[in-house]
Design brief:
alpha/beta, homodimer, 7 helices, about 200 residues, 5-stranded parallel sheet
Chain lengths: ~200, ~200
């Protein structure tokens, strides 16, 4: 691989309906506006394209997360920002993925479960509470909060635009995005090769 | 996504021991020398990271190929060359992947099965002929030759360096690499954004 600009994997983790996908889409637009390559790996897209057949046991969830991590790794080491918006409930596998990737920014999308239940974007909390769905994170399956994420966004209190600004500021602080939305001028005149 | 330079997926297909991995590695080096981002998705790496648990039935092989195709798609639409070195024995799924990706260069790594058996890089032909391995492409499982690949390299007759030059010439002809190893000068001064 070769890379012209440093990139990273932005790992959004949190309960269902906490706001991960909303933030992923807003962030994708903002990064693209800065003329940087970016891909979102959302839970549903991944379950269709990488993980069909996997269930929601701890083992299957972790396999799913490792696959997402593998793909994020390939993208982000090649100058493309990779945004994961999967629940990724288990701490240990998030750590594994962090170690594999290196340039890894973990963002805890922290929203009280009561608020997630109120939103219930896909109507799945209702079914989980009624016992119609098993192994549902936050209701009948565990969610392990990050201990040392690079950032926590409180999506129960903040508007998405506010959380977005915090994430962008963090990416600037860490050197993945240039300050104030101005990307460094990197004149990429390709060298002439012998071959 | 945003992309500074046009890239593609280079899809090497052929029998086991036909020379796909050898060519993938040579090609990766050559593309990297030209200061372009590149990743190799080799069969074994993929089976570990994306497709653990899948077997070698037609359905499982095709699922594996679709996953590789999905990842190649994400990479190559973001200016990174993706090289697949999986056998990919079935024509129909290669066509599916071609349609998904668009910028797709199919290269038939054409080597007579007798020569592949003689090489037997991993010692698997021997086991397949002895009946110790089932569903082995070329022995007990089908391989469907491409009908209209962008290029055929005859790795039974040609040295790897010769096949490599043909592939590079094809990538130049198709506009994915600049002629004569000289990549176009693309001054990438990033624009100043309002945000």
């Amino acid at each position: 691989m070769s890379s012209s600009q440093k990139s990273c994997t932005i790992w959004l983790t949190g309960l269902p309906s906490s706001g991960k996908s909303t933030l992923a889409v807003l962030l994708e637009k903002e990064i693209a506006k800065r003329n940087r390559a970016v891909e979102v790996l959302d839970g549903d897209v991944v379950r269709t394209n990488l993980s069909k057949g996997l269930g929601f046991s701890k083992e299957d969830r972790n396999t799913n997360i490792k696959r997402i991590g593998f793909v994020c790794h390939l993208l982000s080491r090649n100058s493309t920002f990779a945004i994961s918006a999967a629940i990724s409930p288990y701490r240990e596998v998030r750590q594994d993925v962090r170690e594999m990737i290196g340039d890894f920014v973990e963002i805890y999308v922290d929203c009280p479960v009561e608020e997630c239940i109120r939103r219930d974007v896909k109507g799945l909390y209702k079914k989980a509470i009624a016992g119609e769905i098993q192994e549902f994170t936050g209701i009948s399956d565990p969610y392990e909060e990050p201990r040392n994420p690079e950032l926590v966004v409180k999506t129960g209190d903040e508007e998405p635009a506010e959380s977005l600004q915090k994430i962008l500021a963090k990416l600037e602080e860490l050197g993945y995005l240039a300050q104030n939305g101005v990307t460094e001028a990197v004149p990429q005149v390709e060298p002439v090769n012998a071959g």
